[in-house]
Specification:
This protein has 690 residues and is mainly α. It is built from 26 helices and nine strands. α19 packs antiparallel against α20. It is elongated, with a radius of gyration of 35 Å.
Length: 690
């Protein structure tokens, strides 16, 4: 049997030019007399194929071979046509080309595929990936639209046909990029541009999307948005170029309507809405099936029940039913129908949607829906950051996602008012973010910093602080928090001196706003002490922690966790500042108080009691272990500075006791054991050599 290609399937999403490619091939074959018969069938459904085949047979024979009327007669005519196509029929050589355009359901072609023939060719266009399966004598051709170069060349050619030859190369490139290089969009936009008599640069400005939460021509954050909806920038019905059937915003409607009728397909539209505020380059599938996304999907799925809002327990039960497998099934369906690209193994770019479809989806939603959707997407991204935030490969994906989300729904993430005076911080104790601004605004900076991009985190928080100041004024809690995180990552990036200057400026403002005893002021003073020490100013660190301790002792109960922590830092920096004896004595007093205070509250129970090992599960064991670590740190500090003060033998004795305790509590393989053994060996050697 011949292995020559008899069937070529062109597959791609809506508007990428599949039909145009096949039409060029078919016209060329007919013009060059490569075929004797050319049949074109638009496969809207099975009956369209049957009718097309029956009509072809009638024209071939000159008579109506399907005697009678109705569906049965058409079926007989179609089968007669398929029989006529088979090789060897009446001994004649027949060169034919059958085009099956826009196959929407593979079932429509069951029993109607043209037969294999040495002189026959079949060209198929479809969005359906289940139709586009490779096989014997079958070639699958993915169609992805234009490349940037092809798009610019196409635009130049089309505009020239309209008498527009003045377009610059950079204008053509910007035009094509704004429309995602989609052939259908480019042809319709070019026709509208020519008909409206607009210059290319002016039209590109109109294509610049307006803020969906402010509307066309309005202003957001002081920035004019001059764009218009895509539906207003393409020709209306009856004026579409090239006999096109639908405007580009409607190009995916039929696929979505088909999805609505299929299992899990009622999730297609809300999934597409979530994706419309995410990068077209793709996002991890976890964004679409975490708890934040699930609530939106449940509420907006096509079969969502109407009626009163569910109680919390009912909503939880409903969300439990919306399992990740169901969402994955819907994503697979949307991929099969050519609505999205879904590649489960593609790491953080598993779900991709064409930017024109994203835009059409966004613009179909009312502003209040976009606002809620924006916060939902932000929460879903936060959940994804919980799962992937420690992976450096996720950071650029999250950054891209936040940029896209803020481009289209920025105001949904911010408190919609300005703050006037320190009362804005009412109810906020420590140095946390604003409870009204969405946490994603700050989370991105933290992900950048914790994945090794401290300088990028500094720059991000600096920009965020500027935006908070512009939007909410100088008393904004978001502004203060962004400044605090900028200072922190400035230190982590290696600029401890810059961090000190930043914390000093924040501390000065907080002292005036809240007073020296406020929790926010105290937290900043502790951070200032840390970074003074990191900058090499041990004496400055001592001063900061000494003042912090004094302030805490006026308003906290004796030996509170904050006071004990401040005492530990003060002891450390006393030693680093050149007072090892004072540090040793301070650690000794701290160690005594830690054992007494934690012991009184049951916080130093042996983790092994009642369990099977040093790492028994359970909150009580974790608390006990954490408290033991505080004791060990103080014990180690005492021994270290005792040795630095000249008492090597005393340091060795103290470390020997510490080592035995650590082995008993932590187990012999804990990393702290090795560090203690190494320091013990150091002081034992020093004691022998005295």
């Amino acid at each position: 049997m011949s292995t020559a290609v008899r069937c070529t399937v062109f597959v791609g999403t809506a508007g990428v030019g599949k039909t145009q490619q096949v039409a060029r091939i078919a016209r060329g074959a007919w013009r060059d007399e490569q075929v004797d018969l050319l049949v074109w069938v638009t496969v809207t459904d099975r009956m369209a194929v049957v009718a097309g085949y029956a009509q072809a047979m009638a024209e071939i024979t000159g008579t109506d071979t399907a005697t009678g009327s109705g569906t049965a007669a058409s079926e007989r005519g179609a089968q007669a046509f398929l029989a006529w196509l088979r090789p060897g029929a009446e001994g004649a050589r027949r060169r034919w080309l059958i085009v099956l355009d826009d196959v929407v359901d593979p079932e429509d072609l069951r029993g109607l595929w043209p037969p294999d023939h040495p002189d026959g060719q079949v060209l198929v266009t479809t969005r359906r990936r289940d139709v586009a399966q490779p096989g014997l004598n079958r070639l699958v051709v993915p169609v992805a639209g234009f490349t940037p170069h092809e798009a610019s060349a196409y635009l130049a050619e089309v505009l020239a046909e309209y008498g527009r030859t003045d377009a610059a190369a950079d204008e053509l490139a910007a035009f094509a990029d704004t429309l995602g290089y989609l052939p259908l969009a480019l042809s319709q936009a070019a026709a509208h541009l020519a008909g409206a008599g607009l210059g290319l640069a002016a039209y590109v400005r109109l294509l610049d999307e307006y803020d969906l939460l402010s509307g066309p021509g309005e202003r957001d954050g002081g920035r004019p948005r001059r764009g218009q909806p895509l539906a207003e920038l393409v020709p209306g019905p009856g004026a579409l170029p090239d006999d096109q059937d639908f405007a580009v915003p409607e190009a995916w409607r039929s696929s979505l309507e088909r999805a609505d009728r299929m299992p899990s397909g009622d999730l297609a539209r809300p999934l597409l809405e979530l994706a419309s505020l995410l990068p077209d380059a793709g996002m991890p599938e976890s964004v679409f099936h975490n708890s934040a996304a699930a609530e939106y999907l449940h509420k907006h799925r096509a079969t969502a029940p109407s009626g009163p809002m569910l109680r919390p327990d009912e909503r939880h039960a409903a969300l439990q039913m919306l399992e990740a497998d169901e969402v994955r099934g819907a994503l697979r369906l949307m991929d099969r129908l050519g609505i999205i690209d879904y590649t489960p193994g593609a790491s953080y770019r598993a779900v991709r949607v064409h930017p024109v479809l994203q835009r059409a989806t966004r613009e179909s939603l009312p502003a209040d829906r976009v606002r809620k959707l924006g916060r939902t997407v932000a929460s879903a991204l936060e959940k994804a950051a919980d799962a992937h935030g420690k992976d450096p490969g996720f950071a650029p994906v999250l950054r891209d996602a936040v940029d896209v989300l803020r481009r289209h729904a920025d105001s949904a993430l911010w408190a919609g008012w300005s703050y006037h005076g320190p009362d804005a911080f009412s109810g906020l104790e420590g140095n946390g973010p604003s409870p009204v601004d969405h946490g994603l605004l700050y989370r991105l900076g933290e992900v950048l910093g914790t994945t090794g991009q401290a300088q990028a985190a500094v720059a991000y928080f600096e920009r965020l602080a500027g935006e908070a100041l512009h939007r909410q004024g100088p008393y904004s809690p978001g502004l203060e928090f962004a400044r605090l995180r900028q200072a922190h990552w400035q230190g982590e990036s290696g600029d401890a001196t810059g961090a000190v200057a930043a914390y000093e400026a924040i501390l000065d403002q907080q002292s005036r706003f809240f007073g020296p005893h406020h929790k926010r002021t105290l937290d900043t003073r502790a951070a200032l002490g840390r970074w003074r020490g990191a900058a090499g100013d041990a004496a400055g660190a001592v001063a900061a922690y000494a003042e912090l301790l004094s302030l805490l002792q006026h308003h906290s109960y004796p030996n509170s966790p904050d006071i004990l922590g401040a005492r530990a830092e003060l002891a450390r920096w006393q030693g680093e500042s050149g007072n090892p004896y004072g540090a040793a004595m301070a650690y000794e007093a701290l160690l005594t108080d830690l054992i007494r205070v934690l012991g009184e509250h049951g916080g130093l129970q042996h983790p092994k009691e009642g369990g099977t090992g040093p790492y028994r599960s359970g909150l009580e064991d974790l608390t006990a272990l954490s408290n033991w670590v505080k004791v060990f740190d103080a014990h180690h500090g005492h021994a270290h500075w005792r040795g630095r003060a000249g008492d090597a033998a005393g340091a060795a004795a103290s470390l020997t006791y510490l080592l035995n305790q650590q082995i008993q509590i932590l187990g012999p393989d804990h990393p702290r054991i090795l560090a203690t053994r190494e320091e013990l060996a150091h002081w034992e050697e020093r004691a022998r050599n005295r």
